[in-house]
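Section 3.1 - Work completed
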Amino acid sequence: MMQIKQLDARTYVGPQISVADLDDLKRLNIRTVIALRPEGETADQPAISSLRDAAGALGVTVHQIPVISGNITDDDVHAYRAINSGTNGPVLAYCRSGMRATSLWALTAVEQGQSPDEILRKAKAAGFDLSALADRLAARAA
C-alpha cells in the first residue's frame, strides 16, 4: 500500500505513485490525482502519460502542475485551487515526498478560511513540518 496521508475530508497527499498504486486509489474512492512533479524530475518516476492512460482506464483523472521543489508560486497555488474546486470527491496530490503537495494544500486551505495554526497542526500530524511556510500562511490569512 502507498504511503499516503489524509489531511482533511477531501485531501490525501503522498510521495510518487506508480501505475500499480492506482487500484488502491480507486478503493479509497479517489478519482482525481494531482501530480506536482515536473516530467523527468528524477529517473525513477513514471511518465505522466503512462499514469494518465492507466488511470483513465479506471475512471481516475490525472492532472499535472510541474512545481519546482522549494519554489511554490502563486500560479501553482491558483492551479491547485482550480483543479480542487472542479472536483467533488477525494483528491490525491503527490510529489517526491509529499511536502510540495502538503504545502499547496496549506496555501489553499488558508485562503478558504482555515487558521494557519490549524493548518500547521494538521500537516504536522501527517508528518510534514510546514513551519517554513508560517509567515506566508499568516500573510495569506490576513
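Second construct:
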Amino acid sequence: MNTTERPAGVQRVTDALAALGHPHAPVMLSDAARTAQQAADALGVALGQIAKSIIFRRKTDDVAVLVITSGDLRVDEKKVQAIVCAEGGKLGRADADFVKDKTGFSIGGVSPLAHATPPVTLIDDQLFRFDVIWAAAGHPHGVFRLTPHDLQHLTGAPVHDVTVPATP
C-alpha cells in the first residue's frame, strides 16, 4: 500500500511521526487489530508489548483523557481519576462518538499522537517492561513500532502506575 492509499488517520500519524523524527513509519496489517490480542497475534509479539490507547472522559470539562497502557493489563480508573481530576472531579467512560470527535480516530485505531484535540495523556509504567512496543496508527489495520522511551518523547506524557495490580 503506498502513502497515497493510506487512510487519513494513518497519514496523520505518519506525518506526525516524520515531523518528530521517529524512524519507524506505520505499517498496515492485512487483518484488523481492533484489540490488543489481535494486534499481538498479527505481529507475533507478547500481548504486553501492545500499547493500547484507552480514552476516558473527564466529566468536569469534557476533556478526553488518554491512557496508554500495556496490552496485558487493565486500567485502574480510580488511579487515573486521582491523577487527572481535581478534588471531587470524576472520570467517565467515553463512547465511540466522543472518542471519534475528540481524537479523530475510531475505537480500535486510536493512536497515542496526532489527535484532533490534544488529550490529557498518561503512560502506564508497565510498558517499560519491554524494549519494543507497538501502538495503533490511526486505523484498525495500522500500527507502528517504538520503545517506551520513544512513546514518552513523542507524547510528552508523564509515566504513572495506572493499572490494576496483577492477581497472583
